[in-house]
Amino acid sequence: MPATKFSRRTLLTAGSALAVLPFLRALPVQAREPRETVDIKDYPADDGIASFKQAFADGQTVVVPPGWVCENINAAITIPAGKTLRVQGTVRGNGRGRFILQD
């Protein structure tokens, strides 16, 4: 039998295996608790805007530690309501970048 054709038996076996999958229990999955404070160093440095966006999604407070420089911030970064940005290092851009606080 060619490799591209399936027999009825193969299709029934595959269908039965797929039908059983919802009843099989994998390891219990737990929701990840949001962290209170996240460090911007834990995110990719090449795309600062996406890094800040992901950091604000992951934690309550985003920290730019001392000695760390976030360069080329030349677009708007929105700080969601109830979130905090703690800058202890440096944030640089060409003058077009800004942080927007939401209520």
Task: Characterize the structure shown.
- By secondary structure, this protein is α/β, with parallel strands linked by helices.
- It has a domain at 33-101.
- It is built from 2 helices and 7 strands.
- It has helices spanning 8-20, 48-58; strands at 35-39, 59-64, 69-70, 76-79, 84-87, 90-91, 98-101.
- It has a 3-stranded parallel beta sheet, with helices on one face.
- The radius of gyration is 24 Å and the shape is elongated.
Count all strands and give the number: 7
The outline comes out as elongated
| Widest sheet: strand ordering | 1-2-5
Instruction: Return the string of H and E elements.
Output: HEHEEEEEE
Spatial gap, N to C terminus: 66 Å
The chain-level structural class is alpha/beta
Percent of residues in helices comes to: 10-25%
Q: Main β-sheet, in a few words?
A: 3 strands, parallel
Arithmetic mean of pLDDT = 81
Strand content: 25-35%
Tally of individual helices: 2
Extract low-pLDDT stretches. none
**Taking Cα atoms only, what radius of gyration do you get, to the nearest Å?**
24 Å
Keywords: Signal
Protein name: Colanic acid biosynthesis protein
Signal peptide: 1-31
List the helices and strands and how they pair.
Elements: H1 8-20, E1 35-39, H2 48-58, E2 59-64, E3 69-70, E4 76-79, E5 84-87, E6 90-91, E7 98-101
Parallel strand pairs: 1-2, 2-5, 3-6, 4-7
Keywords:
alpha/beta; three-stranded parallel sheet; 2 helices; 23% helix; elongated; Colanic acid biosynthesis protein; signal
